[in-house]
């Protein structure tokens, strides 16, 4: 009887909607972890995280070609949660993570022979994002936009929280940027408010994308929660070349300055300058060859008609969003001791324990 009553409430359009508040809210985050955890079978992850307390799931998407999926949850006060599932044990899911070349934050992806994905995630032409997670977001975006409009028109829901843990967090960054563009274009209503929680987030783009995202979500609307002992938020590797700096910069005319030096000084400084300049450039090219062109060949097995994009010569991955740091203490270190589990500090259980006790 209780379940039927809750279901009827969720079907009633909301005359007024609850007002989301900016900033990190501990109880809000704990409920989001409970919801995000529900996307995985209990046997897949062993922990004691309880069931969601306030929200009910009303929609679950189909699984995409790279094993991405998302759920829609709503409460009785006019707030909805877009919960994006993170990495699974499937090979396709991990190929998405390793497909780590960069592409411009504005462009078009040819997903198949009949589908082009037009995206605009940042204003800066120097902004770049992780191609694998962009693909994951692209495969989910259509149903997300459809369900947002359906919830808005049918139930009057104007407050949405976007939640993702791990790979889901990386996709959540890009989704938030994409939805901002959808609002600008009038595809979804401008009156909708979005708040984003990226939990255990890897680095989804370069510093210029981060600037844009943080400007978009300024004032506490884009929260990134990190366990200080978790290695995943430190990935992918960051490679910075001289081309990554804003202009003008002291490296622009470095060669001209070096030419003004005495002969032997010029020889030595030139040698050092070339080593500093060329080493990261070579590393970036290797990154693109292996985590771009090579991984693409495997991704293509899951998306046979996906056309390989032109990659950006950029590897300046950086941390994104307003940081909330969960700091392990002695009690945490005594509880989480399995050194053989590389995801010990990354899993839901670790984040839930830290969030609950801080």
Can you count the beta strands? 13
Straight-line distance between termini: 37 Å
Shape: globular
Share in helix: 40-55%
Please write the string of helix (H) and strand (E) elements. Answer: HHEEEHEEEEHEHEEHEHHEEHH
**Biggest beta-sheet profile:** 7 strands, mixed
Give the percentage of residues in beta strands. Answer: 15-25%
The Cα radius of gyration reads 22 Å
Low-confidence stretches: 1-17
Number of helices: 10
Order of strands, main sheet, comes to 1-2-3-8-9-11-13
Secondary-structure class: alpha/beta
* Mean pLDDT over the full residue set: 90
What does this molecule look like?
There is one protein chain. This protein has helices at residues 2-11, 26-37, 91-98, 131-155, 167-184, 207-216, 254-259, 263-302, 330-335, 348-357, and strands at 56-60, 70-74, 79-84, 102-104, 106-112, 115-120, 128-130, 159-165, 193-199, 205-206, 222-227, 317-318, 322-326. The protein is an alpha/beta fold. It has a 7-stranded mixed sheet, with helices on both faces. The chain has a two-stranded antiparallel ribbon with strand order 4-7. It has a two-stranded antiparallel ribbon with strand order 5-6. Strand 2 and strand 3 (79-84) form a beta hairpin. The protein is globular.
Topology summary:
Elements: H1 2-11, H2 26-37, E1 56-60, E2 70-74, E3 79-84, H3 91-98, E4 102-104, E5 106-112, E6 115-120, E7 128-130, H4 131-155, E8 159-165, H5 167-184, E9 193-199, E10 205-206, H6 207-216, E11 222-227, H7 254-259, H8 263-302, E12 317-318, E13 322-326, H9 330-335, H10 348-357
Parallel strand pairs: 3-8, 8-9, 9-11, 11-13
Antiparallel strand pairs: 1-2, 2-3, 4-7, 5-6, 10-12
Helix pairs in contact: 2-10, 3-4, 3-8, 4-5
């Amino acid at each position: 009887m209780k379940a039927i009553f809750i279901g009827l409430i969720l079907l009633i359009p909301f005359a007024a909607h609850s007002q989301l508040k900016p900033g990190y809210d501990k109880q809000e985050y704990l409920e989001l972890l409970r919801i995000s955890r529900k996307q995985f079978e209990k046997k897949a992850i062993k922990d004691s995280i309880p069931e969601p307390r306030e929200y009910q799931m009303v929609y679950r998407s189909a699984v995409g070609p790279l094993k991405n999926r998302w759920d829609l949850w709503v409460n009785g006060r006019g707030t909805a949660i877009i919960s994006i599932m993170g990495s699974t044990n499937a090979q396709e899911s991990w190929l998405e993570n390793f497909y780590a070349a960069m592409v411009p934050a504005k462009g078009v992806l040819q997903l198949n022979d009949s589908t082009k994905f037009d995206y605009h995630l940042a204003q800066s032409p120097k902004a770049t994002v992780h191609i694998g997670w962009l693909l994951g977001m692209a495969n989910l975006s259509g149903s997300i936009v459809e369900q947002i409009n359906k919830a808005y028109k049918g139930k009057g829901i104007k407050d949405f929280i976007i939640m993702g843990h791990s790979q889901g967090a990386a996709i959540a960054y890009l989704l938030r940027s994409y939805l901002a563009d959808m609002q600008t274009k009038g595809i979804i209503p401008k009156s909708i408010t979005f708040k984003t929680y990226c939990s255990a987030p890897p680095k989804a783009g370069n510093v210029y994308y981060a600037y844009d995202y943080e400007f978009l979500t300024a004032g506490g609307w884009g929260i990134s929660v990190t366990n200080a002992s978790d290695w995943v938020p430190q990935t992918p590797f960051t490679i910075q070349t001289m081309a990554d700096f804003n202009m003008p910069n002291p490296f622009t005319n470095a060669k001209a300055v070096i030419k003004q030096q005495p002969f032997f000084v010029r020889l030595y400084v030139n040698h050092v300058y070339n080593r500093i300049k060329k080493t990261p450039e070579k590393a970036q090219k290797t990154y693109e060859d292996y985590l771009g062109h090579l991984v693409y060949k495997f991704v293509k097995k899951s998306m046979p008609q996906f056309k390989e994009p032109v990659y950006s010569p950029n590897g300046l991955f950086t941390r994104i969003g307003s940081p909330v740091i969960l700091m392990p203490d002695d009690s945490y270190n005594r509880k989480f001791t399995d050194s053989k589990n590389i995801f010990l500090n990354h899993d839901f259980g670790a984040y839930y324990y830290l969030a609950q006790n801080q």
